[in-house]
Amino acid sequence: MKPIPILMYHNIGIPPQGADLRKLYVRRGAFARQMALLRLLGYRGLSMGEAMPYLCGEASGKVVAITFDDGYSDTFEHALPILQHYGFTATCYFVSQRIGQHNVWDAQAIRATKPLMNEENVRQWRSAGMEVGAHSQTHPHLNRCSDSELLGEIGQSRLDLEQLIQQPVSQFCYPYGSFDPRVAAAVKAAGFAAATTTRRGRATAGSDLYSLPRIMVAGHHLLPVLAGQLLTRYEDKRGLR
């Protein structure tokens, strides 16, 4: 079956001085070149919602899903214009109770305070044709949550975002990639159509929709590396380790 790569980004910009996890930052120019490469290779860049017919085996074609975790302001400022330039769509997963704030869940650990989109940014992101997905309410390790906590972190995050944009929210992403069968069942029960992980690999039609693998695009990756991630079984093999 034709692979359906799902790209995972976090920040589009320059790492702050002294910040850890610098690989999570893809500079704006690099991101633009990566989108140009997708076009050159014949891919259509899609949001997760638009990729669902391909993931379900109802459509075929050379597509790649583009996702952003956490909802950082630089995704709106830097990535959105580039996506629009190439006619691509993408999904951004928002932490519903942290909109307009910053990355309180890991700012101290990574030594970087990164602003998140505010409510108007989220609405403008959606109005621009992009997709709003859920990334929990507060960004916890969901596999450490009680059943009652899961109801809020998962189900209520969807309701929070739907109230904000006045449209359905159908896509979920596990914070930290932390999930287990109980968490996946809670995501499905909350009415989400699919959920992405941090597990490496390329999705295919028929993949488990609640444990979809992704390809992390790191700040140090050159274009040949991304091409190899998209076109070869390198990421699939790494995901099996």
Low-confidence sequence ranges = none
CATH architecture: Alpha-Beta Barrel
CATH T-level fold name? TIM Barrel
Rg, alpha carbons: 17 Å
The largest sheet, given as strand count, sense and whether it forms a barrel, is:
8 strands, parallel
Highest CATH level, the class: Alpha Beta
| Secondary-structure element string | EEEHEHEHEHHEHEHEEHH
SS content category = alpha/beta
Would you tell me the overall average pLDDT? 96
Shape: globular
Helix content, binned percent: 25-40%
Strand-residue fraction?
A: 15-25%
Number of helices, where a helix is a run of at least 4 consecutive DSSP H or I residues: 9
Number of domains: 1
Number of strands: 10
- CATH homology group: Glycoside hydrolase/deacetylase
Would you mind describing this structure in some detail?
This protein has helices spanning 28-40, 48-55, 73-86, 107-110, 119-127, 147-165, 181-189, 223-231, 234-239; strands at 6-9, 11-12, 25-26, 44-46, 63-70, 91-94, 131-134, 171-173, 194-200, 212-216. It has 241 residues and is of the alpha/beta class. It has a single domain (6-239), classed as Alpha-Beta Barrel (TIM Barrel), CATH 3.20.20.370. α1 (28-40) packs parallel to α3 and α6 (147-165) packs parallel to α7. It is globular, with a radius of gyration of 17 Å. The model has no long low-confidence stretch (mean pLDDT 96).
